[in-house]
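Please fill in the sequence for the structure shown.

STRUCTURE ENCODING:
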């Protein structure tokens, strides 16, 4: 389980200096389980033809499958590859009503678990750019 701490800059993890500014990109394909009504994430288990053949030979599923609970489903639906983790946390807070102190460490742990299973990629978020200051000149262009 990932250990985390909160600072004034945001959520700190050993793997990522500031997770709240990162963007999570879904890699897995979501499917709905018709029997249970849960969202299931899956991705191919073998990355090569040989790997896929190995899992076929031992009778294992060719897919990594994760069944999400209600909390996981809310988070997954917020992951669009554009929102930062801070924005996902805010959407989750609005949806679930949790306090930030409880929500952020739980969200960080969940995202690390998804990444460890190859279901998401965590990438640097958009960098804020500062518009160059306009310099008024003494000359008129009229």
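FILLED IN BY: designer on duty
SEQUENCE:
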């Amino acid at each position: 389980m990932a250990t985390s701490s909160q600072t004034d800059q945001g959520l700190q993890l050993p793997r990522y200096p500031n997770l709240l500014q990162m963007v999570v990109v879904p890699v897995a394909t979501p499917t709905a389980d018709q029997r249970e009504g849960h969202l299931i994430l899956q991705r191919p288990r073998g990355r090569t033809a040989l790997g896929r053949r190995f899992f076929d030979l031992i009778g294992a599923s060719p897919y990594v499958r994760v069944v999400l609970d209600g909390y996981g489903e809310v988070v997954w639906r917020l992951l669009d590859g554009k929102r930062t983790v801070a924005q996902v946390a805010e959407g989750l807070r609005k949806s679930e009503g949790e306090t930030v102190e409880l929500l952020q460490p739980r969200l960080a742990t969940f995202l690390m678990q998804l990444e460890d299973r190859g279901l998401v990629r965590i990438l640097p978020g958009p960098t804020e750019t500062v518009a160059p200051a306009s310099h008024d000149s003494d000359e008129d262009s009229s």
